[in-house]
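Hi U.,

Before I forget, here's the chain from the pilot set. I'm dumping it here mostly so it's searchable later in email.
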Amino acid sequence: MAKYKFRIEGGRYGGELTVGKVTPEFVNYWIPKIEEEGAYDTFIPHVLALSNWPNDEDLDANSPKITEEGNQVEWYELDNLEHINNAYADGGFVVSDISDAEDKHAYDENEMQVEGHTLKGREGAYIDTTVSNVSAEEPDGCTGVMLFHSAEKGGFATWWVESDEPFDPNKLVFSIVETYLGDFVEDVWYDKELLEADFDYNDTTGKSYEAAVGWITDQWRDEYKDPEEEDLAEHWEDYADNLEWALENES
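Structure:
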């Protein structure tokens, strides 16, 4: 039986983000309006109103349809490219020793703030916000998309570790998914063992919405790959080299 048990939680800020394909006409219509007005006054209200289409006063009657299928959509279901729900990548981690706790979710007054080490990142949704010269078509090699993000505060994923040794912050490693609206924690490892994310106790409060439209360059986007089926040897070598350098140069 392991001597130590730890609870790892991401930072307190993050949220849900979806990336889905939309019509080229929708992208070209909204890019200049968002650039001029921002996303908050008309674009975000329009997208939220689409769930009640066509009976909502926030709808922009001049907007082209958002998908080829039509207009009545929920933003969180428009996710055929990405659906992310986790803490921001720059928020660090909170580690609690629950070795002797009856309740594994109990507060640990000696909890540790740990930065963690980045193993790798992938480009999930960077976009170009330039209007296409041909309004009815997508630029060659690109896909028109909408990103919609509910920024939230609270608790996101939890990861559990059992070990025979005290917690070592240098063994906490994570990967990142990078998007136009923020970078998020994706997978987490401890001592090179992939940890399963537990979302059963996800509890957040919505703070605001963020949204954008534009073109993803298809060849630059990295689709998610199961890390257990991916060759990560080079990334682990880089991690070891970076860690060795950091330890040698500690002040």
